[in-house]
Every structure is written in structure tokens, then in C-alpha cells.
Backbone:
């Protein structure tokens, strides 16, 4: 892409401070939910931190847009970021601020080339677990028929949901809680499936025995490579004399 | 296939009107279930719309059959469509009309070459969710021991079933509801599995790091390609002088 | 294998009668469970049919053993059949007779070369569903805390278990019922997973769009094939003149 | 690796005695949980056996560390073993002793080259089932709201969890029990998934029909191999006369 120089340098330089802000957001989001009896001052502070972090990421989006060589293309390929920036302005709900900031953090994390896939997937799973639990807890705690009343229950529910075990000892009962649960299911099952598959691969890894078809295929390619190598050797053995001959005849 | 010209032109021209009819059917099916206190006139209108849409798709099948160059082969390869056309004539049940129309819409959607795989799978999942929820709701609502009494519960139940989470806070209790659930399970789990796998792939996509064996295999092919390319260069270097030589000797 | 002639002819000739016997067993096993108020005569008849079918399959095993050219090897590679033959002699329990006969039928079905994979997997799933439901029903019906009391509940439970949905509205409570459930889970989940994967593939099939990596790999091979084909054309263009030349020089 | 000789000989010679000790640990861990009314002497004996087995594995780690040619590298690549050795010294809890010894046994089992993948995965699944059940039982039995009170319930719960069926008829209610459950879920689902996939493969194995794409790919490689083989034959047919010619011309 042509826009590399300026934008990429900005993205690399702002990576660490934005990560620190993301962590601050996580704390500011968790505190009023985990500690519901907090004083009004603490609550106000947390809200301020949330708005600040969202603002910093929104500003980061605007700066990246200005630094982009083709702004129209940047807006088109980053429409999800734009939505995340605009959403809390239209509806200043706490939940929308959470989703927006998570989206902006996720989009930025994907840009950071130093982050490895394992870290990204692991971080997403932990983030989904944590924010999914907290959001469902804050929604369900006040529901009269709700059964997710403590943080422990919420985390346990997230875990049994993302592994698709689904005991049903805890389940959201409100419409909003269920919408959050559907989001958590779709993304959480997908990502925790990747984690589980990696754990299975880790158990198996040191045995270096792949499944039959895979092996057969690799064997086919290996056989083919041997074949071509032999062919090449033959052609190599064939070519120099011919050239000599040609040269001899030319002189 | 030889039958392309006439039939394919018909299929392309009727695509949009049939899609509009399919949408009308969705509305006509949903209204009396979501709004059970609707007046008799509304109910009668909905039934008329349902029969009309089914009729249009049945007519479409007949016309495609007449336009087909080999009608016998068309009937054999589209036996599912034939069943869907005949079923509501034998048993004019609402549920059979739903299944028939869904089948006919699905078969036609697959023919439409403009529809992409993502749209098709996504549309099928949304359709299964919506019609599965509505059908189970209409069946379970009147069951004395049933626990699926509102549309929200029905959609939530569909979701927890298709993701195989299965909390068990809501589950069909009647024989017909369970038969619908089995159909939803088999097709829904299969399709939502595709969606979840795609979400996982989307998360991972931008990292372009594949699992080990895949990489090893691609590497093997790449190595082989280099090998062959080198061989070809050698042969290319070898061949012109030989030809020259041959030509020289011929003169 | 050397034992083909005699044994294989026997296996092909007995295939149909044994299939009929397997069907008779299914009926004889189901009747007393589905119809618990049946007269003693019906029950005695069913038991006789069960013993006869098991006996026929046991006899089939003995005849195949006698027809085998290397009996020792046959016993070693068919130890599961031997267990299935001997088990009901040691413990004449109804459940053991069921497991034994199912094993013998399954082993014979795998030998029959006319049966296609889809039929085999589908038949196994239906068989596991049916016999799993019946066996769990017969065990759980008499349990005081049991919640699987009707055939409908048993089939529904089998289905929600094999799809891993597991609502928990019905679950075995006795030790024997749970052991049956574990067997059903391990084999049923494995097989119904194959069925679900096939349904997903059937939905996707007509679009012929594979996932990215698969396509990239196939593309790599295709590119390589083009490369090699070009090389071959070059070599082919190269070789005849050389031969001519050689022949010319020899003359 | 350079450290082979001394360390590998030690590992091979100690394999069997350590396996016997691992079995003794399993018994010593199970007895006080399965038989809660055991006399104090039995309990004290079991604790002694547990400590002895852990000590033996810790000693094994120290000896392997001393035998390693590069101790620093050995510590770095076996940091999990080091944790497992040190943990019970810091916190002499029974549960930590279990996790530590399991980790040490698992790490040693992976080193043993005689153990095949199937045995390793199968052993891990059985081990996870058994120790997971016992640990959760010992934690949940004393919980007032707990519903896992007997060994049968615990094993049944482990099974429904590891298959992700999750009926919810039994589920841990204490924080410690849930943490154990999360560990069991992540590792158990991963490993039992491997087992289920193998069962499915075993059902399908004798039919030797692979899925379409796999076959198409192998076919592509096979076609390519044929192509290359033909090419090689051509080149082979081409090369000897040329050499003869060259030799003739040189003389």
C-alpha cells in the first residue's frame, strides 16, 4: 500500500500508549460492576476514564485517516472503526461505549505487527470472557428472575457457554443479556475452538505423527520432488557435453 | 448442460420477483404467530398470501420443467422440488406449506449464480433461526407443559440449540416441536458451524500464519516449484544451441 | 488375502438373509420395550427370535472361521466378533445380547462391499439412535428418580445427546443407563459429527468455493503443473531433431 | 541434541519404575476420596505414598538436570517440570501435589519414545477423567449446595463435560470446583475431541473414501507425478544417444 510511511510510523509509535489506555479502560469498566457500593466519585472517575480512552482511540482514528494517502479508501476499508467512533456520540450508553472501545482496540491490535497470532487469539478470548462476564453481570444482576448475580457466576457462565458445554445452571434471562450472550457465543465459541484445537495440537505435537491422508499427501510430494531432482541431475549430466560439443563445432 | 438457453434465461428473469414473494411469505407466516390476537381478516389475508407464494413457486417449477430440454432428467434431479410442490396439495397444513416454500426458495436460491456462498449460508442461518423459532413457538405455545411461550424465548432457544450450547432453560416438550427441533439441530448446527468457523478464520486471517503441517506442505510445493523452475532454465539454456546446431548441420 | 475364494463367496451369499435376520432382531428387541403390557407369549417369542438371530450370526462366524485359510489369523483379526459370540453364553443378559448382535451385524456390514460409506454411517447413526433409545428406556423406566419414561423422551434424549446439545431435561440417572449413555456419546457424537459435516458440505457443495488456504495450495500445484507441462513441451520440441541428427550422423 | 547419551539412558532405565510409582500415586490419591470412612492410618499411609511418589519424580528431575550437558538450557526448556517440583514445597496442599505429580508424569511420558500417540492420548483422557472426577468430588462433597456427592456422579459429570454435552444435572458450585472444571474442560474437550475424531475415522476407515477436496488435490499431485515421470522417460530416451554422439565426436 502507498500510505505506509506516515501512517505506519504513527501506528508503531502510538501502540504502547494506546495499550496502556486500553488497560485503564478495562479497569474503569470493571470497577463499578465488581464493586457496586462504590462512592459516586469513583463512579464519575470511571466514566471519565472510559470517555477519555474512547476519545483517544477516536482521535487515533482521525489522525490515521488524515495521515492516509487515500482517505476515501481508508474510510471504506475501516468502516467498522468509523461506526465504533460515531456510535457513543449518538447513544451514550455504557454498553455501546464498551463495544466501541473493544472494536477500536481490536482493530488497532490487528495492525500491530509485533503481536503474534497466539497472543492475539489468547488476548481476545480473555477479553471476551472478562468483558462478556462483566456486561452480562451488570445487565442480569438487576433482573428479578436472573440467576447471574455474582462475578464468579458470570465468569463460570461465560466459560460453560464458550466451550458449548452449557449446563444451564446459569443463563441470561433478559433480552439485552441474551443479545450479549449471542455475541459472546458466536465470537467466543469460534475463538475458544481455536484455543482448544491448539491445546490438542500441543498434546500431540511432540509425537510428530500426522493423520494418514496428510502424510500420504506429503509423501506424494516428496516422491515427486525426488523424481524431479533425479530428472534434473540427468539433464545436468546431459547438458555440459552438449554445450561443449556445440562450442567445439562452432570453432 | 444442454437445457441452458430457455430455462436459464427464465431463472435469471424471475429471480427478483420470486425473492420479493419469498419475503412476503416470511411476513405472512410471521404475523399470525407474533400477533396472535390479530383479527380474522388479517389471518385470512396471511393464509391467502402463503398459498399465493407457494403457488407462484409451484408454477415456476412447472415452467422450468416445460422449458427443460430433458423433462425426465429434470424431474429426477429436482425430485425434492416436486415433493415440495405436491405436499401442500395432499396435506394443506400450515407447517407443510412452510417447509415446502422454504425448500422451493432454497432450491431456487442455489440456482441463482449471483448469490455468493457467504450470502447463501448467512441467509440460510437467519432463515432457519427465524422460521425454526416461529414454527416451534406456534407449536409449543399451546402445550400445557411448554416453556417456549414468547418470540424472545423461541429465538433464544433456537440460538442456544444451533450453537449446541443447550442450556435447557427452554426446550420443546411436544412431539411435533421436537421433530422441528431435530430438523433445526441437524441443519442449524451444520450451518452455524460454518459461520463460526468463518468468524474464527476472520479473526485469524490478517495474521497469515497457518498451522504447521499446512505450512510444511506449501513449503514442500514451493521448494519443488523452485527446483522445476531451475530445471526449466537449464533446459531452456540447453535447447537453443542444439537447435542452432541442428540447423547448421542441415544446411 | 489368500482366504478370498471360499470365505468371500460365503459372505456375499449370506449377506441378504443376515440383513433380514438383523431386521427381525430389531423388531424382536423393540416390541417388549415399546409395548410393555405385551402377553408372556409375545415376550417369549421375542426372546426366541433374539437368541435365533444371535445364533445365526455366531454360526456365520464359525463358518467363516472354518472357511478361512489361516484360522489363527482370522481369530486374531476378528477378536471382537469372537467376544460378541461368546459373551451371551457367559452372561445371558438381554443387554449383552443386544451389544453382541449389533457388533456382529456391524462387522458383517463392513465386509459387504456393496454398502456405500453414506449408507453405513447413516445406518449406524439410525441404529445407535434406535437401540440407544430403547436400551436406555428399558433401564431408566424402572428407576424411581428416572426422567426417561416414554419412547419419545428416549429418542429425544438420544438426539440431544448425540448432537452434544444436552438440554438436561432428560438424562439417565442409573449407573447402567449412564454407561449406555457414555457408549452412545462416544460413538454417536463421532458419527453424527460426520453426518452434520456432510449436511454442511451439501449446503456448500454447489458453490464450489473452498477455503482460502486449500485454494492457495491447489493453485500452487496448478501453477507447478503448468510449469512442468511447458517444460515437457520444450523438451519434446527439443528431442526429435536431436534424434534425427543422431540418426543422420550414424548413417 | 548433544545431551543424549547419559540422560537418555537414565530416562529409558527409570521409565518402568516411575510408571509403577505413578500407578501407586493414583491408588493413594483415590483411596481416601472413594473411601471417606477410612481409618487415620490408611489416610496417613496414602499421604506418605503421595509425597514419596512426588519426591521420586522430583529426584528424577534433579538427576536428569545433573546428567544434562547444558543444565541452563534444560531448566529453560523444562520450566514446567521445575514449577511442578517446587509447588508442593511452597504450598503443601493435596490438590497441588496432584497437579504437580500429574504434570511430572505427563512430561516423563512424553519423553518415553516407546509410548505411541494413541496410548498417550487415551491415557491422558482416562487420567483427566479419573483425577478430574476425584478432585471435583473431594471439593464438592463438602459444599452445602453441591450436587456432586458420589463417585458415580463425579465420573458422569466429567464425561458429560468433556463431550460438551453438559446436561447440567450435576455441575460444580464452589469456586475451587469450577476452577478444576475449567482446567478439565480446556484439556478434556481438546483430548476427547481427538478420541471422537479417531472413532469417526475408525468407522470410516475401511471404506477408504476421503472427502472431495482432499481427493481432488491428491489427484492433482498424481497427475503431476505422471506428467513428470513421462517427461523423465522422454529425457532418458533423449540423453544416451546424445552422449554416444558426443563420445563418437570426441574420438
Residues:
Amino acid at each position: 500500500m502507498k500510505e505506509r510511511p506516515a501512517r505506519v510510523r504513527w501506528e508503531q509509535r502510538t501502540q504502547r500508549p494506546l495499550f496502556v489506555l486500553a488497560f485503564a479502560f478495562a479497569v474503569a469498566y470493571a470497577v463499578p460492576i465488581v464493586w457496586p457500593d462504590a462512592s459516586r466519585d469513583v463512579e464519575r472517575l470511571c466514566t471519565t476514564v472510559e470517555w477519555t480512552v474512547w476519545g483517544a482511540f477516536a482521535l487515533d482514528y482521525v489522525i490515521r485517516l488524515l495521515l492516509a494517502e487515500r482517505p476515501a479508501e481508508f474510510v471504506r476499508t475501516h468502516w467498522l472503526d468509523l461506526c465504533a467512533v460515531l456510535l457513543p456520540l449518538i447513544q451514550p450508553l455504557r454498553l455501546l461505549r464498551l463495544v466501541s472501545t473493544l472494536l477500536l482496540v481490536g482493530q488497532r491490535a490487528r495492525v500491530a505487527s509485533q503481536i503474534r497470532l497466539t497472543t492475539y487469539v489468547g488476548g481476545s478470548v480473555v477479553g471476551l470472557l472478562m468483558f462478556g462476564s462483566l456486561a452480562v453481570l451488570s445487565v442480569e444482576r438487576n433482573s428479578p428472575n436472573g440467576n447471574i448475580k455474582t462475578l464468579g457466576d458470570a465468569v463460570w457462565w461465560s466459560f460453560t457457554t464458550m466451550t458449548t458445554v452449557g449446563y444451564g445452571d446459569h443463563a441470561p434471562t433478559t433480552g439485552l443479556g441474551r443479545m450479549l450472550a449471542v455475541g459472546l457465543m458466536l465470537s467466543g465459541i469460534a475463538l475458544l475452538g481455536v484455543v482448544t484445537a491448539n491445546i490438542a495440537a500441543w498434546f500431540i505435537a511432540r509425537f510428530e505423527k500426522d493423520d494418514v491422508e496428510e502424510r500420504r499427501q506429503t509423501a506424494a510430494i516428496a516422491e515427486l520432488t525426488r523424481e524431479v531432482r533425479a530428472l534434473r541431475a540427468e539433464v545436468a549430466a546431459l547438458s555440459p557435453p552438449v554445450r561443449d560439443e556445440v562450442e567445439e563445432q562452432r570453432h
Remarks:
- DSSP finds nine helices and no strands in chain A.
- The CA atoms of residues 21 and 53 of chain A lie 6 Å apart.
